[in-house]
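We close this part of the discussion by returning to an individual protein. In the encoding step, the backbone of a single protein was reduced to a row of integers, each denoting a local shape. The sequence in question and its structure tokens are set out directly beneath this paragraph.
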Amino acid sequence: MKWMILIFLNFLFCAQLVGQVSRPDRNLLRGETYVIEVPKGWKRPSAVHSCNDEPLKRVNGKYETTKFMRVYSKRKDRCGAVLTIMEIQKCASFQEIFKEDSIWASTDTTQVKVIYKSVNSKNGVKKMAFTSYKAERHPETNELSALQKAEWYLQGRENVYYISFTSCSLFLELLPQIKDIVASLKEL
């Protein structure tokens, strides 16, 4: 009788662990030094070809990078949403990447805010910068003339992780989901 109870408890414990690790509503993306959870609605763009859902790899300046791109669309939305997750390997300072990106920021957007934070977390991220951009409105139609964008620069132990989210009308609807994606990043 005791053996049956122990076996049953062991089964429940294993089932609970599997339930915590594998979430059926999310895909797990694996970079070189990190994993991140992305909800199932986000698809790989059809123009991006990579075997077995591996990240795209390239040398960008003096750093090796890996990159995932995902798109989300709804039928009545005119432009959908784009999520970019980039790992910049062996980069000791996210501020270096942030400054370089700020130089190339689009002229038809206005930088709304930049937030720097120290993060005490189990997932390896030490520091973070969050930037959001607001699109300018067309003077005659009052429609947004460009996409809205939010960026996260996350400093890991040896790498920088850049996460970018761009959208038009879906921006506010999807922003909480994107914040969950950013929070799910874990260094290996």
Remarks:
- Confidence is low (pLDDT under 50) at residues 17-21.
- The longest helix spans residues 2-21.
